[in-house]
Structure formats: C-alpha cells, structure tokens
Amino acid sequence: MRVTVLGVGRLGASHAANLRALPEVTALTIYDADPTRAAGVARPLEAEIAPSIGAALESADAAVIVTPTGTHAALIRRCVDAGIPTFCEKPVALGLEETRDVVDRVERTGAPLQIGFQRRFDAGYQRARRMLSDGEVGTVYSFYMVSRDAVPPPDEYVATSGGQFKDQLIHDFDITRWLFGDEVEDLYATGSVLGFERYRAIEDIATAGVALRLRGGVVGLLSGARHNPAGYDVRVEIYGSRDSIAIGLDPRSPIRSVENDAAPLPGPAYPSFFVRFGDAYRAELAHFLRFARGEADNPCTARDGLEALRLAEAAERSSRAGRPVRLSEIG
C-alpha cells in the first residue's frame, strides 16, 4: 500500500515510523508545512517528501492526518472527495457544527474514516472491556480516570489545541463510552490555571476535574493535568459488585506511599505517551490498514469522534457556567 502522512510533528513522525515498519506499506510519502522537519523525518525512513498536499495525495492508497486540529475537517473532506481511506487524529474538528458536517458527509458517502483514539487498542483497556462485558466485575458502581502529562505541551500547541477538555480529556470521554458501552447523562466540570497563569489569556486551563453520571447510573470521576513531574500517568480504577480492577498501574507508579515512605521510590512513571501507548499506536495503524483494504470493521467512527466532542463541549460549558450540564443540552 502507498500511504501518505500529512503532518510530521511529534505524533506524526511517530506514526510515519510505525507505518514504515509495517510490511504492507510499500511506499511512504510525507508532507509537512515545514520542509526542514519533513526532510528530517523522511530521510531515515527513506520516505518521499511531497511538495504539496495535492501531490502527497495524488497516488495514495491511504492517508494519515496528523496536522494541527484546525486543519482536520478540510483535509478529511479532501480525502473523502478523492475516495482515499483516511485515518485522522482526534478531534475531527474544534467545533460541533463543522464536526457534524464531516460526519454527515462520511455517513452519506460511506467513506472509510477512522478516528485516532489509541486507548481503544491498549491491551489493558481491551481486557478490562472484556471483563466488564463478561460480568466479571459485576454491577459497576463507579470509576476513576487519571490523565496527567509529564511535561506540558509547547505553549504554541496549547494555544491552538481547543483547550484541555477537547485536547486532553477527550480521550477520557471517548474511552468512557467505549469501556462501559453507555452514554453520559450529565456532568459537572471545573478547572484551574494554578501554576500556568499564562493559560488564562487563551481561555484554557492546566488542571481539570469532571464528575459525570452515565445513563445506567454509573458515577465517574475524571482528573486531568498538563504537568505531572512524577511522569506520564494514565490509568483507570473501576469498582463493581463482584470485583475492583485497574488499568495502567505498574511497578513504576508515580504515586508515593506515605505509609512506606522509607522504601525506595519506584522512580517516574512512563516518561511520555509514546512509551505508555507505543504498542497501542502500532496496533491502531495496523488495524487502519486492514480497514482501508476492506478487511476489518471501523473501530472508531466519525460519529464516535462527534460524541466525544459533545462531552468535551459539555465539560467546557459546565466549567465556564459553574453548573452541571446535561448532554441533551449539547445538540
């Protein structure tokens, strides 16, 4: 397959390397708005550098979009109109109206579009989902999710990311729907710029908390942070009538035990999301190529992207208004 990668920043460069390692990728083409960056990524991968988006898509059997969020919708439409199976990193777009437009176009045309929520491909999340589905946990009462970056992303990225709820916690919103097979009824969100006063100027936050309730009655608590010096920390604890389970805990847990303070600390958790979800990213792209060839179902549709964005919009509205928001208020 001839695969084109649009955008080779941190994540795009990683996707390009993962794609090059797949045996079915016979040719890899790269386009980036920064020619120097494109050259630096393409050289070790022996990838072709395209001078324009049009040239990059001209002979592509599949496209992978990892450009800034504000460009996603236009590029998806371009690929859809060209009949190119497409993978796009989350979110589909920053706004609901533009996202709905993409969803309508994709569903109307039947165009193959997979959205990038890599946690769905992580072995721990997949096993937990099977355990929940098989009833091993019993009736789920509540859950607790953590998403904490080790190092804040660059300020220029934060300024165009759409905000913490749409950029960071949108993963938690998506995986909540996927894990529990249920929709959110209502939520209350709050946030702070503590330690990051500069975020106030772009109307963003650095630390967030969300309390939500699923239609079936399950209560969830979500905690997000842009800065966690102990390491990249993404985990879930699920409490049920038969058992309690956790995803993402390992010997490198960043939590320091006050009861056993004299013991050697395990050191930092994962240093980056590339390490924490490296296998998941690789599995996600391998599945996309099967999906692009018509050999597998779509594991994460454009509508899934829309529903995750609705939750992010609800959280943003709740945080600003200081009140709970029902999902029925969001479209």
What does this structure look like?
The two termini are 39 Å apart. This protein has twelve helices and 13 strands. The strands form two sheets. Strands 12-11-7-10-9-8-13 form a seven-stranded mixed sheet. Strands 3-2-1-4-5-6 form a six-stranded parallel sheet, sandwiched between helices. α4 links the parallel β4 (62-65) and β5. The protein has helices spanning 10-20, 35-45, 53-57, 72-81, 96-109, 123-134, 155-160, 164-167, 170-180, 273-276, 278-292, 302-321, and strands at 2-6, 27-31, 48-49, 62-65, 86-89, 113-116, 140-148, 184-192, 207-214, 219-225, 233-240, 244-247, 325-326. The protein is an alpha/beta fold and 331 residues long.
Strand content: 15-25%
Shape: globular
Report mean pLDDT, rounded to a whole number: 94
Give the termini separation: 39 Å
| Radius of gyration over all CA atoms, rounded | 20 Å
Outline the biggest β-sheet.
Answer: 7 strands, mixed
Strand order in the largest sheet: 12-11-7-10-9-8-13
- Secondary-structure element pattern, one letter each: EHEHEHEHEHEHEHHHEEEEEHHHE
